[in-house]
Amino acid sequence: MAVEQPQAFPREPGGPPPDDAERWRLALEASGDGVWDWHLASGHEYRSPLWGAMLGYTPDETAGLEWRTLLHPEDRDDALRRLEACLHGSTVAYEAEFRLLCKDGKYRWIQARGKVCERGAGGDPLRFVGTHRDVSHAHEEIENLRKSERLWRFALEGYGDARWDWSIDGGEIHVSPSFRSIIGLCGNRPVRGNDIWPERLHPADLRRAMAVFDAHLRGREPIADVEFRLRCEDGTYRWVAVRGKVMERNAAGKALRMTGTVRDVHDRHLAVEREKRQAQELAHAGRLIHVGEMATALAHELNQPLTAIRNFSGVVLRRLDAVGPLADPIREPLQMIAQQALRAGEIVHRVRGFVRKGRPVTAPVAIASVVRSVVRFMQPDLGASNVRVVVDLAEGLPPVLADHVQLEQVLANLIRNAIDAMAELADERILRITACTGADGCVVLAVSDRGPGLADAIRADPFAPFLTTKPDGVGLGLPICRTIVENHGGRLWVEHSSPAGTTFCFTLPALAG
Amino acid sequence: MDDPLVCVVDDDDAVRLSMSLLIETLGLPVQSFASALDVLADEEALRQAHCLVLDVRMPGLSGVGLQERLSRLGHPLPIIFVSAHGDVPMVARAMREGAFDFLQKPFNEQVLLDRVQEAVQFAAAQRAARGWLAEIQARIDSLTARESDVMAGMVAGRLNKQIAEGLGISIKTVEQHRARVMEKLQVDSLAELVRLVVGVGWSAESKNGQ
Description:
The structure holds 2 protein chains of 2 kinds.
Chain A: E1 3-4, H1 20-30, E2 34-39, E3 44-47, H2 49-53, H3 59-63, H4 67-70, H5 73-87, E4 93-101, E5 107-119, E6 125-134, H6 136-158, E7 161-167, E8 172-175, H7 177-183, E9 191-192, H8 193-196, H9 203-217, E10 224-231, E11 237-249, E12 255-264, H10 266-323, H11 328-355, E13 363-365, H12 367-377, H13 379-384, E14 387-393, E15 400-402, H14 404-421, E16 429-437, E17 442-449, H15 456-459, H16 477-487, E18 492-498, E19 501-509
Parallel strand pairs in A: 1-3, 14-16
Antiparallel strand pairs in A: 2-3, 2-6, 4-5, 5-6, 7-8, 7-12, 8-9, 10-11, 11-12, 13-15, 16-17, 17-19, 18-19
Chain B: E1 5-9, H1 13-24, E2 30-33, H2 36-41, H3 43-48, E3 49-55, H4 63-73, E4 79-83, H5 88-96, E5 101-104, H6 109-141, H7 145-155, H8 160-167, H9 171-184, H10 190-199, H11 204-209
Helix pairs in contact in B: 7-8, 7-9, 8-9
């Protein structure tokens, strides 16, 4: 192929204006592209000075260069194939990227675009023109990007992080092999976003994880960062930490592509959970020890005056014997005082016994007598709070094996709570105590109030220790009640709680026979 | 005979006063103390005490500490412990040391009164027994050596003749000693004599050991 000697551009000032073809060449040269114009019939090829200059050749050298021999061996086949395709008309435009050998022995990336602009009657190409543009810089950047991506992958996978790349519209998600190994996914079967999200998410974590991703997709959070449980192939769940970021958005700001990492944090999560639980148990034990000390001190401090009350009552009762029948109206209430002093002492001992995990002193107990005695005992409170008690005990209730005092404690506590619950009630304050035989041979007791329902603060777990809505409460009433009931082999639960009232129920195993 | 005094020891004023008033309803004299050391300092009260109602935990000397001191001093006094704590090891220790009873505060006051009365009766019986023993011992001690030898023979069931031969004296002398023994020990028959001296644990060996 003969190559025309390149002419210097621009023409000397004052010369005649360039013709059309020359105008195009000028424009292209000014844009920084090298231009070639190949007349296939004559084999003559024009090359602009920039064509060679971008490879380091002088204009003189440029004309003599053999393009095909400059091609990088790796790029040659592709470049020639594209050229032939265009010349033979199977493609309209010629586009190729290849490396050409420079004068200094290095290669530069060249982007070539061209078109057959004249064909013969048989369609054979007569003239082929096009441009070369140096795109080495862009290629370097791409290569740097690839390198950095490789580095990034290496770094991530070095930390045990798996990668994912999610085309949000298409739904397809590319996951790295380590991701598959986390969830035990075999083979290279393509994965859809939906297969993982939300399909494999633990139902309890779904809402939280969705909220985090949603916040990021809507642009409210710079990154999505959330831990949740993923279901593995074997059906078990593993804790993973997922971080992700939207990499592409459309003009409207809609997220198109999101990519990120997954880290298996299962073991760490379990360890943290375990530590948290241990800390909670320790704190609980600490509080119990504290309660135990408090109970011991209280027991001593309360038992002394209780002893004195009981003794003084006894003294007066004995002195009244000398007075005769006149003293009778005094004797009975005095006996009540003496009785209550002993009862209070028993409660103190039992509470302390309970704190020390003491076993209850059980004996056959008639529910009716417990209910009667507690209601009588609480009558002053009930009266003061204007609460009417409705007791509805089923006929023929079997006796239960229970510690009478502890049972009274439970019932008194539930009644106390019911009274407090109705403190603000404008309607008639009715407290219902019912007992019946349950399906499994248990006796079921229920205490219902017409109050506004459990407060939000305790609704989630009304039996958690040290949770209270009462300004002077310590939050041990219900947990102690539940422990007592459970020690008796029964259950205590909230049967119902609404703005119309709350019902606490507990069961006690009936005495066989 | 001494009054059967009941001593109440408790550092809590109201408890102490109420227990004292209560025990007084039995018609018994009561003396109360705010500390265990006060009891130890009052020899007269200790001499007369038939029963000690004792709080276990008190500042200074504890109830159980007082029990140990009294035991070492040879005062086998019935002690009723009362405690607002009632720890099992404490109860066990007090009972092992010979406590008369252990009541947990607050208690049924009738139970306390019953136990105090039993303790006082027990102490009185103990004292009476101690007095009787002392009396018999005094009678035995009044015998001469020869009379004591003769009594040993009598208690052993020997005949006068055998005793005389054993001691190398005449039967008549034995009969005289025998009459003196019966007189000094204030008994009318040999059976009564044997019951008396055996009852106080006397024997020929113990006599010889004297």
